Automatic annotation (TrEMBL):
This is O-fucosyltransferase family protein. InterPro entries: FucosylTrfase_pln, GDP-Fuc_O-FucTrfase. Belongs to the glycosyltransferase GT106 family. It holds the Pfam family O-FucT. CDD domains: O-FucT_plant. The chain crosses the membrane at residues 64-85. PANTHER family: O-FUCOSYLTRANSFERASE 9 (PTHR31288:SF22), O-FUCOSYLTRANSFERASE FAMILY PROTEIN (PTHR31288).
Length: 571
């Protein structure tokens, strides 16, 4: 058997050698020109002889017979590599961008605008009158004040000082969580200190934005609250709050962490400081602690008297302006300020000028963060993943597709829009009855809030809170708190349009889509928002967005029967 195998392999070797000598074709199979030696003939002959000698040596060593097939294949590859190849250059078109990865919405608007105008001429009822399918038989009812005990508070273990950073609603989150932590530790909460944020640049204090007296009085039976540290405590720290030990608490810390790590310091020193305090308490805590969060956010915190007075006046004006729709209007939280566009790292249609302006804005607010080594900015990926802020034009196309016609009164809550004249023009074209705080209130009325972004945001917050439909276009604390507050006010329904941006960007990228098809897609999206309006809180989610069931209970009787009583409650 071994002799036969040896003979067979030797025969294959000889055939291989003969084929090399008689090879008369190129790699692509064309006959070679007679009398002209290929440029690789000498190297081919050398390789062939080498392979033949190697194979012969192997066949004489029976112990290496098992490696013969492998070496044979290797020799063939070497031989093939020594031959010349005809190179064929294929010119390919650049790959088409992924659907939705580019901002092409202006082309879509250009194509759909004639159909929108045609819809204006019809007398179909405004979708605002029937946007939400509310179940009046089984609605949720606020119960934040019923979840807390009314017993006399025990003696305080010490003073808790926290520093709230960020914008209006990030500060709100810190305040409510601080109330919960103070209740957990049986501490006296000192009115929170507001940190001057590099982005918001608002020097307002707690009392400038929120009603300080109302806050203290509302919580007096649940948590001790004082405006400032007592003199004897402050003297222990050299009359300087900064000398009080700052406990670096990790984000989303559990109640047990506060009991084990913070309470001993509080008992020992009679005062502790936690700065910054944003997101320093876990979402899931015992029901009594959740009750404090609920009560602080929905009952104890209200805006200061100057903000409240002007905000109520502005809401009244919106209702009067929308008399033809029963006093109902749409509010839109438009996140297309320069800092938001810069932070998103998304690309629109401004070309080199836009890139230069965004680079400057990123460096001004987040020094070096976007220039770190290995940080890759992929605008197309961000857009496809739904992380890019919707432009005013895109918001308008979406709302018109959903059925909101040009008679709809729209309030836009926003800061200074990036290139406002350019980007707001198409939205105003689609919704001529569009208002902002600057057109709804007089310059004299707004003068006291000038250069105070959080106070201006409080005006926006109130007007959005009372709208029939609220449209969120980008994430953040403002829409999250508003959705929760609206659920708390409207029987558990957020009455909020939350766009599915991953689907939207693909639809916006199809400039040839038929208007009727586009409208159906938008109406389906509105129906989806309607269905999600009554979602309850899941594990790990925030009660500031989903107040049910922690802050609200299920109501059995119809909404308008005995609405002010606590009867027939499912607790």
């Amino acid at each position: 058997m071994k002799i036969k195998l040896n003979s067979t392999l030797f025969d294959l070797s000889n055939r291989f050698w003969i084929s090399i000598q008689m090879h008369g074709y190129t790699r692509l199979g064309r006959p070679k020109t007679a009398g002209v030696a290929p440029s690789s003939s000498s190297s081919s002959s050398s390789w062939s002889k080498f392979v033949f000698l190697l194979m012969s040596a192997i066949f004489r060593r029976r112990g290496l017979l098992l490696f013969a097939p492998l070496l044979y294949i290797s020799g063939m590859l070497l031989y093939m590599g020594s031959l010349s190849f005809d190179v064929v250059l294929v010119h390919k078109h650049p790959p088409r961008p992924h659907p939705g990865s580019l901002y092409t919405s202006p082309q879509l608007f250009h194509n759909l605008w004639p159909f929108m105008e045609a819809d204006n001429a019809t007398s179909s009822p405004n979708i605002l009158m029937k946007a939400w399918s509310l179940n009046e038989d089984r609605q949720w009812k606020p119960c934040a004040n019923k979840t807390l005990s009314q017993i006399e508070l025990p003696k305080s273990n010490g003073y808790l000082i926290i520093e709230a950073n960020g914008g209006l609603n990030q500060q709100r989150l810190s305040i409510c969580d601080a109330v919960a932590v103070a209740g957990l530790l049986n501490a006296t909460l000192v009115i929170p200190i507001f940190h001057l944020n590099s982005v918001w640049r608002d020097s307002s204090h707690f009392g400038d934005i929120f009603d300080e007296n109302f806050f203290i009085q509302s919580l007096e039976k649940h948590v001790h609250v004082v405006r400032e540290l007592p003199v004897d405590i402050l003297e222990r720290f050299g009359n300087n709050v900064s000398n009080i030990v700052n406990l670096r608490v990790k984000a989303w810390s559990s109640p047990s962490y506060y009991i084990k790590k913070v309470l001993p310091h509080l008992l020992e020193m009679r005062a502790v400081r936690i700065a910054p305090f944003s997101n320093r308490l876990a979402p899931s805590v015992p029901s009594k602690i959740q009750g404090l969060r609920c009560f602080a956010n929905y009952e104890a915190l209200r805006f200061s008297e100057p903000i409240r007075t002007l905000a109520e006046t502005m809401v009244d004006r919106m209702i009067k302006h929308s008399s033809q729709s029963g006093g109902k209007y749409v509010s839109v939280h438009l996140r297309f300020e320069e800092d938001m566009v810069a932070f998103s790292c998304c690309v629109y249609d401004g070309g080199a000028e836009e890139k230069r302006e965004m680079d400057i804005a990123r460096e001004r607010s987040w020094r070096g963060k976007f220039r770190r080594k290995h940080r890759m900015i992929k605008p197309g990926v961000h857009r496809v993943e739904g992380r890019c802020p919707l432009t005013p034009l895109e918001v308008g196309i979406m709302l018109r597709g959903m059925g909101f016609d040009n008679t709809t009164l729209v309030y836009v809550a926003a800061g200074k829009i990036y290139k406002e004249q350019k980007y707001m023009a198409p939205l105003k074209q689609m919704f001529p009855r569009l208002l902002t705080k600057y057109t709804l209130a007089t310059p004299e009325e707004l003068a006291q809030f000038k250069r105070h972004s959080s106070r201006l945001a409080a005006l926006d917050y109130t007007i959005c809170l009372h709208s029939e439909a609220f449209v969120t276009t980008q994430g953040g604390n403002f829409p999250h708190f508003l959705m929760g507050h609206r659920r708390y006010m409207y029987g558990g329904h957020a009455k909020t349009i939350k766009p599915e941006k991953r689907k939207l960007v693909v639809l916006f990228d199809n400039s040839d889509v038929r208007w009727e098809v586009f409208k159906q897609q938008m109406k389906d999206m509105l129906n989806h928002s309607d269905q999600r309006g009554t979602e309850v809180k899941k594990t790990g989610e925030s009660l500031y967005t989903f107040p049910m069931p922690d802050c609200m209970s299920k109501q059995v009787e119809p909404k308008y029967e005995n609405a002010n009583t606590g009867k027939n409650m499912i607790l």
